[in-house]
Hints:
Elements: E1 3-5, E2 10-14, E3 25-30, E4 34-37, H1 45-54, E5 64-66, H2 72-75, H3 78-81, E6 89-92, H4 97-101, H5 104-114, E7 132-134, E8 139-142, E9 147-152, E10 161-165, E11 170-172, E12 179-181, E13 184-188, H6 198-209, E14 215-218, E15 222-225, H7 230-252, H8 257-268, H9 275-294
Parallel strand pairs: 4-5, 5-6, 6-7, 11-14
Antiparallel strand pairs: 1-2, 2-3, 3-4, 8-9, 9-10, 10-11, 12-13, 14-15
Helix pairs in contact: 6-7, 7-9
Amino acid sequence: MSVEKISDRVYLIDTHGLGFERCIGAYLIKDEKTALIDVGYASSINNLLAGVRTAGVDPSSIDYIILTHIHLDHAGAVGKLVRISKKALVKAHPRAIKHLIDPSRLISSVREVYGAKADRFGEILPIDGDRVEGVVDEEEVELGSLTLRLHLTPGHAPHHISAQLVEEKALFCGDALSMRIPSFEHDIPQTPPPSYIHEQAVQSIKRFMELDVEVVLRPHYGSMRIYPGFFNDQIALLDWWRSLVHETIVKESERSFESVLKSYLERVGKEKTPPFIEENLRVSFDGMVKYLERVGLI
């Protein structure tokens, strides 16, 4: 299923990023004005556009594109999309703006992390400065009968925001919370390089505890109703992951992802993970290692 109706006015679009089903999503909100939250990879823009049309919206009529952050599985297609959605205003963290206007450093960073595999993500195009606007913390975007309240939530990345759909008590959390895809019903910590900061990630989750939300809408992947203690469990997962990576490196005197993966699999009671999950665990391992180096723990 490429498009899932979450509520009367919210749709989840499966972008089929890198060929994976139900792993990388974008959310469409239909009201008097239309907003798209995240856009996926540049290489999957045709799937995104098809999903928008399936939900009954002409891509050229989109009013807002809200980027939770500028990692390419969330924002890679935005440069192409604004050339189709010609009236859309892009809203992003203030620290993201310069990279959207001139993505050269972003592209270099991606190539540093992924090497030749970065070609899979598609061409990253710049955005004109008058098409993008920095978010102010707790800024509200009025869509008609619905209001999006935007929160600065760094940690996963310094340029991360989250969006609260006030009337529906829903939270578009971006990657501030764990990954949990339908084909692997276990939480994956999201601590990528180059700029993960653990303390900020925890503080952002604590901010979520103060919001009047009942549902989280993950890009990876789908909606879930919040249970008592959910956000505390999310913090505990990040703390456990930090301790696991740190203790493994100290104990083995090497940076062994394989040992960390084995411990993770033991925790969730599995013998192996789908390729998409293993790749993301490896990225989260690399990001946590860089964080531990930065703070002088390894």
